[in-house]
Design a protein that fits this description.
Elements lengths: L1 H10 L2 H17 L7 H8 L25 H13 L6 H12 L2 H14 L2 H26 L2 E2 L5 E2 L2 H8 L3 H35 L3 H16 L2 H30 L1 H15 L14 H16 L6 H6 L6 H33 L1 H4 L7 H6 L7 H31 L4 H15 L4 H25 L7
Antiparallel strand pairs: 1-2
Helix pairs in contact: 1-20, 2-7, 2-20, 3-15, 5-11, 5-15, 5-18, 6-13, 6-15, 7-8, 7-12, 7-13, 7-15, 8-9, 9-10, 9-18, 9-19, 9-20, 10-18, 10-19, 11-15, 11-18, 12-15, 13-20, 18-19
């Protein structure tokens, strides 16, 4: 543990923070603030595979190869679309991304960020989300641009294919794929399973072992059906559980309405290392607020890591701009909305009921806040956490599967799935602090080759 903490303190020191935030800021200006098109992108993301009118209705499509061509060419294009119909719709690709990113980072991750970095970490987490939308746009643009087709006609892509096909560097592509595999077993398995078993143990007194087995069985039942099965489940469940959780946060903010303004002031002051206004977790210095705010922001939205680009590449959308804008909205929902609301709930509760947070573990601040939710209390948070964790387990299984396929071909996928399911159970019984330190280490390593590809191919990305 001491060695891991030292490595992470070095890895997440000022150089990586400057690199990550510098990338976010650079692409925000280079792409002329793609965040300004957020509401158009949200509207575009709601189009399904069947009733989506046209990519060109919101954003111009670059491919004009069929303009002025005879009807036979258009028929050939239609036939091509029938062949690729098994690829995901833009909304399914977005839902798969949200399934992987919406989870413990929004609930437990925010709690640990406040506990370790002070309330000011919420501000830096939020800033990471605002600026990170531009980086997510660039990642997904390049992933669609440099994707390729697998043997069964499905699109496959992601940073490893960008490094391979865009930079023509297979070794860096393999390095990223190895990191993605490690992240799938870390971020995808252990973090989610451990958070669920901790919550169910505290709320219902259930042993971690049967919960770990149940999570493994449920996840296996879905991922064995492939990407279409994953996409269908995510498309139907992720929006519902997201809005249910947001509804719970809004109810708590109504309860904490008298503390809300003070909480906002506290967050802003602590973000720049001013003295805290009230009790609870002591405000940390600027460096710690930056370290945990940006690290947890990266963990929740994954802008800079590049994993959302793996799902974006599976979309049937031909124009990289369209899918890039759609996938960009995942960062907005994940960090700008959900992490902010969770953070406000946690900090408001520290003012509303300081006794509930005094001596609380770093992962329990969110639970202390939701305990005040009328009638349902702890059960609401536990159920939300379990639902998010299951979708994250399923979403991340696809990211790891594509990495395994890149490294070992289709023959490696069944072995990967078996090991992934086994790791879910193991993750349910590992100490929590070890899980989070390993997660920070993996995220930091993954960011480096992905950011290299973004900077090297930045001229290919168009707004």
């Amino acid at each position: 543990m001491a060695l891991l903490e030292q490595i992470n303190d070095f890895l997440w020191g000022l150089p990586l923070i400057i690199l990550l935030m510098g990338t976010h800021i650079y692409f925000t200006f280079k792409l002329r603030f793609p965040q300004r098109n957020l509401f158009r992108a949200i509207r575009l993301s709601l189009y399904s595979a069947e009733d989506k009118p046209s990519d060109a209705e919101s954003f111009p499509v670059e491919d004009t190869s069929l303009v002025g061509k005879p009807a036979s060419a258009k028929k050939a294009s239609t036939a091509h679309k029938v062949k690729t119909a098994r690829n995901l719709s833009p909304f399914s690709a977005l839902s798969t991304t949200l399934a992987a990113t919406l989870g413990t980072g929004n609930i437990i991750g925010v709690s640990t960020a406040v506990a370790l970095g002070g309330p000011g970490a919420i501000f830096w987490c939020w800033i990471t989300g605002i600026l990170g939308m531009a980086t997510a746009y660039g990642e997904c643009y390049l992933s669609v641009l440099h994707r390729q087709k697998s043997g069964d006609g499905l699109y496959i892509g992601g940073p490893m294919y960008v490094l391979k096909n865009g930079l023509h560097n297979k070794k860096l592509g393999s390095l990223y794929a190895l990191c993605t595999l490690a992240a799938a077993f870390g971020v995808g398995c252990t973090t989610q399973a451990n958070s669920v078993t901790r919550a169910t143990t505290l709320s219902f007194g259930v042993s971690p072992h049967p919960v770990g087995v149940m999570l493994a069985v449920v996840t296996a039942a879905v991922i064995l059906g492939g990407i279409r099965s994953i996409g269908r489940l995510c498309e139907r469940t992720v929006p519902a559980i997201t809005f249910l959780y947001l509804f719970g946060c809004m109810l708590l903010l109504i309860l904490y309405r008298h503390q809300l303004l003070t909480a906002v002031v506290w967050i802003l002051k602590d973000a720049f290392s001013f003295a805290s206004l009230a009790g609870g977790v002591a405000g940390a210095g600027l460096r710690r607020a930056l370290r945990y705010g940006i690290a947890r922001g990266l963990f929740t939205n994954e802008a800079g890591i590049g994993t959302s680009a793996i799902a974006a590449a599976a979309s049937h959308t031909e124009d990289p701009k369209v899918q890039a804008y759609v996938s960009m909205t995942a960062v907005f929902w994940d960090t700008v909305v959900m992490c902010l609301l969770t953070g406000l709930v946690v900090v408001c509760n520290m003012l509303y009921d300081p006794a509930s947070t005094a001596g609380a573990a770093e992962t329990d601040l969110t639970a202390a806040a939701f305990a005040h939710l009328p009638y349902v209390g702890d059960a609401f948070l536990t159920i939300s956490l379990c639902a998010f964790a299951v979708t994250t387990l399923i979403g991340w299984s696809y990211f790891g599967e594509k990495a395994a396929e890149y490294l070992g071909g289709n023959r490696s996928v069944p072995f990967y799935k078996l090991f992934y399911v086994l790791m879910i159970y193991l993750g349910a019984i590992i100490p929590m602090h070890l899980v989070w330190e390993c997660t920070d280490l993996i995220n930091g390593i993954m960011a480096l080759p992905n950011l290299l590809a973004l900077w090297a191919l930045r001229r290919e990305i168009k707004s």
